[in-house]
């Protein structure tokens, strides 16, 4: 059986608690995990990091379950006990919603929900969004450049996904802003383990979503024309495929979260890494056709969703470490994306990296991110537009003054 050092266990405890010190730079930990501690057993859960093992686990649906929010899993039991008993009902409510996300489902229910979700991101819809997203990007940058010679790209990275969401959902921008605000509170507690205050914020955010979506459903049932997103979710092929209201509500909010949180992190992170490397910016400026690949390298380098999770159906042995059935495996996407076996010089950001698109940032296999086409669309357009409109752009602040935060799943500037 593999042994684990106390030092890496302590560092991982800090990582999953989202300590500011670790959030500032987790990549030293990831490097040690990939090269020296490929499988770590922390008791309540295990941690898996090398690219080949991560890819194997996230694509093996016969041995590993996606239902990581199940009340029977070791991690959920430990997290619930960590809260005061007065918050257990709140915990059950939040986890009960997140348990219905498409990314948490297996089997027949996963097939049925995925069928509805696929109607949202059709090739026709993505093609329609291309021109609209370009217009939004140009408008935002024009407005921001007119206000100040320094463009706050964090603001841009917040506003563009929100405006695209408003268009996609067919709702006013102020409603999209509300959805984003509530999503921030929900995502701060995603996968739990962030303390009681984060749980309370997530509870409030989810309640706001419940009221908002219930109102939209009532409007639809009263004869109002449904927005395109609701039509995509509700317009399934037969009555037996119809999703119940709880599943519709979970799918609705999941599309908002995926369309905003991961895209925002990828946009601002990619722009920051480019601005920190004038040589890479010049390479991109000299060959703008590299814009798409530059964003893929940003997705690899930044990894907006740092990890995901799986549950083994039965006891499984991975590199001499036996992981019991039902124990949560934290699958470290960000570590896998820096694996030197797959990516030579993995800590270098290179806009022309040939295998950048092999990254695991959107997961792969049956449970890959359905919104990846939209995120890639926004990313490509953003990089193309920046290099076209601001070819001489440079970072206006000292990179050392930029602070990373968020939480262990969603690390962000």
What does this structure look like?
There is one protein chain. By secondary structure, this protein is an alpha+beta fold. Helices cover 56% and strands 7% of the residues. It has helices spanning 6-16, 20-24, 27-35, 51-59, 74-82, 88-98, 107-118, 123-147, 153-169, 173-187, 196-221, 228-234, 245-275, 278-286, 291-302, 333-336, 372-389; strands spanning 39-41, 45-48, 64-65, 308-312, 316-318, 321-323, 328-331, 405-406, 411-412. The strands form 3 sheets. Strands 1-2-7-4-3 form a 5-stranded mixed sheet, covered by helices on one side. It has a two-stranded antiparallel ribbon with strand order 5-6. Helix 8 packs antiparallel against helix 9, helix 11 crosses helix 13 (245-275) and helix 13 runs parallel beside helix 17.
Offer a few descriptive terms.
single chain; 413 residues; alpha+beta; 17 helices; 9 strands; 7% strand; globular
User: What is the quaternary state of this protein?
Assistant: single chain
Largest sheet: 5 strands, mixed
Mean of the pLDDT scores?
A: 87
| Residues in helices, as a percent range | 55-70%
> What's the order of the H and E elements?
HHHEEHEHHHHHHHHHHHEEEEHHEE
Strand order of the largest sheet: 1-2-7-4-3
Percent range for β-strand residues: 5-15%
How many helices does DSSP assign? 17
By DSSP, the count of extended strands is 9
> What Rg is obtained from the alpha carbons, in whole angstroms?
21 Å
Question: What is the overall silhouette?
Answer: globular
Low-confidence parts: none
Cα(first) to Cα(last) distance is 39 Å
